[in-house]
Amino acid sequence: MSDTKNVSKSEKQPWYANGLQFTCTQCGDCCSGEPGFVWVEQSEIDAMAGEMRIEVDEFERRFVRDVGPDRSLVEYPDGDCILLDPKTRKCSVYESRPIQCRTWPFWDSNLKRKRDWKETCEVCPGAGKGRLYTFEEIEAERARKSV
Ligand code: SF4
After folding, report:
1. Residue 131, SS3 per DSSP
2. Is the CB of 38 under 6 A from ligand 1?
3. Distance 115 CA to ligand 1 centre (A)
């Protein structure tokens, strides 16, 4: 009896087991809006400084802030990421953007409940449309970094 119980437990699938659709429209909305944090590791800072062809020290001075023991990108007062070009609304370090940016919208916080994904689709015009990501692909994105 307990075996049956375990099997059914382990077979319990998350609500997005059939995959989710997403195709980035490059609107820049996920880089703006409410103030928040774009967490960055040293290797990510090094890569972004490299793409901008500036020294790491300068990049850190201009674009990185300490948040307790962690570090995040600076924002404009309106919540836009400091690296979002205000004119083009494109990321100025797109090729080396941090993992947090790469894994949007497949963040734990957006996938917890169906309702969270629905809210994500309301703020992100690319979520819920376009390419179908399989469950395995979504889990691989989630494993890269939980937000
Ligand atoms: S680093 Fe680039 S992709 Fe990430 S929030 Fe800033 S502008 Fe957007």
Report:
1. strand
2. yes
3. 25
Domain-located, residue 102: yes
CB of 45 sitting under 6 A from ligand 1: no
- Ligand 1 centroid to 2 CA: how many Å? 48
Number of residues written out for the chain: 147
Q: For the chain, what is the domain count? A: 1
Q: Where are the alpha helices (DSSP H) in the chain?
A: 2-10, 42-52, 56-63, 99-102, 108-111, 114-123, 135-144
Residue pLDDT, tens place only, 23-44? 999 899 999 988 899 999 999 9
8 found inside a domain: no
| Structural domain of 57 | 15-144
For tokens 């979504």, name the residue: 138
Q: Is residue 9 part of a domain?
A: no
pLDDT at 20 over 70: yes
Indicate if ligand 1 lies below 6 Å from the C-beta of 81: yes
What pTM was computed for the model?
0.84
- CB-count burial class (<10 Å; 0-12, 13-18, 19+) for 35: exposed
